[in-house]
Amino acid sequence: MVFSAFRIFEIITHAMVGFLPYLILSVYVFSKHLRFSKWITALFCALGMAVQIGTRFFAIYTDTGDTVDISITRLVIYILLLILAIQEHPGKLLFAGLISSNIANFIMIAATCIEGILFSGEVLRHYCWHASLIMVVLHLFITLPFFVLVEKKIKWMMGSKPVGNEWWYYWLIPATFYLIWQYQIHGGGQKRIDVVYKPQTVIFLFIINVGSILIYYMIIQLSNQLFKNLELETKNHYRDIEELEYQILEERIEDARRARHDVRHHMVVMGEYLDTGDYARLKDYMNHYRKASDSEQPIVFCPHRTVNGLILYFAHQAQEHEIDFQVQLSIPDKLNIPDIDISVLLGNLLENALDACKEQTQGKRRIIIRGKGDKHSLFFTIDNTCENTVKQNAKGQFVTTKKDGSGIGIESVKHIVERYHGVFTAEKKGEMFCASFMLNLGAKAEMES
Predict the structure, then answer these.
(1) Which of 25, 158, 188, 294 could form a disulfide with 319 if both were Cys (CB 3.0 to 4.6 A apart)?
(2) Is residue 50 scored above 90 in pLDDT?
(3) Which one has a higher pLDDT value, 43 or 295?
(4) pLDDT digits (tens, 9 = 90+) for 259-293
(5) Opening angle at CA 432, ends 430 and 435, nearest 5
(6) Where is average pLDDT lowest: 28-42, 219-233, 266-280?
(7) Residue 283 maps to a domain
(8) How far apart are CA 82 and CA 88, in angstroms?
(9) How far out from the chain centre does Cα 215 lie?
(10) What are phi and psi of 382, to 5 degrees?
(11) Does residue 230 surpass a pLDDT of 60?
(12) How many CB atoms lie within 10 A of CB 277?
């Protein structure tokens, strides 16, 4: 069979009008989860488009039209391309691919039925230009509102993390509707063309489509509520942990304050030795005090009371374990962040750094802290020598090396950073483990107001 240039143009146009909108929609929904670069993803899209065009030429060449085999072949290849190009849960990709396929099938069948009514003399010519024109009109009234629904209700659902195993089951719903479609068009012993050109078929399939969209909407609402409940439960869980850690840190800081308060009593004793001229006992007392005290550390690292107290406490701990402790801070006395948040952030990171240095058996141990803040932002870097290998699980979470540890400290830090629309990084660079966070304090204030 020889195809004229115009006939080739007709077939390609029909394939593009029928498939391209849904291909673009799938890539848009999962645009943040592409497995490869944009150029390679574009090649996958071109391959999917080529399959759509090729199956149409095959259908005309064999004079069979769109058989169930061709329809299933298109769907399977489309789903496989999504799985190859997008790094997401297979259930999500099946869910999205089947929904798109069902809507696309309805548009194509409705266009074919209307074409049969308006152009009855050309009902046996597949993929004509007027069928493509009718599909464009149907896209405006059906596909475009569906795109709006996807943007407002479905896109976030596709980008959210699974709560459980729900995606292994959600895709079965559009799959069931797809089987109903196939049976309605290809089942019953009738020829496809006889079924498609019946207006009652289009009406029935339209009702099925409306029903399926209502079910999808119910699934979205259910998932939304489930996600909110889980998010609230997670927030409460982290809040309980943060409050507990805050109380512990407050107790440690208070201990350090009491130790500082005791300095004056030591001064009284040394004064007595000095007044009586008992220099030998004064010397012994001072040597003993120098070993038991870390008075060489500066009392004030920055004007902020909580930050200074935390740094001071861990500076004492570092000196006790002979760890070089370097601090460079530019933090004002007031920050637009609650003390409990800054305590959990710095407390967890400093404790991790201290533990890593205490476990170090070779080389010089050191902790380097840099911080800068104002009313708009807060930035900290905490670098420490680290001898052990840093491990992460499949979800990218750091695995604790403590025997009795839960490994939840870093997750608490990440949780707080997310609340402030900030950025957290942690990685091993040579002998150093480098952790840093930046908080957008202005955005937090605007959100709370």
Answers:
(1) 294
(2) yes
(3) 43
(4) 666 666 677 777 777 888 877 887 787 777 666 65
(5) 125
(6) 219-233
(7) no
(8) 9
(9) 26
(10) -130, 110
(11) yes
(12) 8
Give me the mean pLDDT over the 363-378 stretch.
Answer: 92
CB atoms within 10 A of CB 217: 13
How many structural domains compose the chain?
Answer: 2
- CA–CA dist 53, 25 (Å, integer): 19
Are 86 and 220 members of one domain? yes
For residue 149, give both structure tokens: 């629904």
pLDDT digits (tens, 9 = 90+) for 386-416: 887 766 555 555 655 554 444 457 888 888 8
pLDDT of res. 405: 46
255 is a domain residue: no
Domain that holds residue 396: 297-448
Partners of 327 in the β-ladder: 369
pLDDT of residue 140: 92
Record the pTM: 0.54
Q: Which of 236, 255, 281 is the last residue of a domain?
A: 236
CA atoms within 13 A on the CB side of 176: 10
Residue 295: per-residue pLDDT: 44
* 112 and 232 co-located in one domain: yes
Among candidate residues 236, 269, 285, the one where a domain is terminated: 236
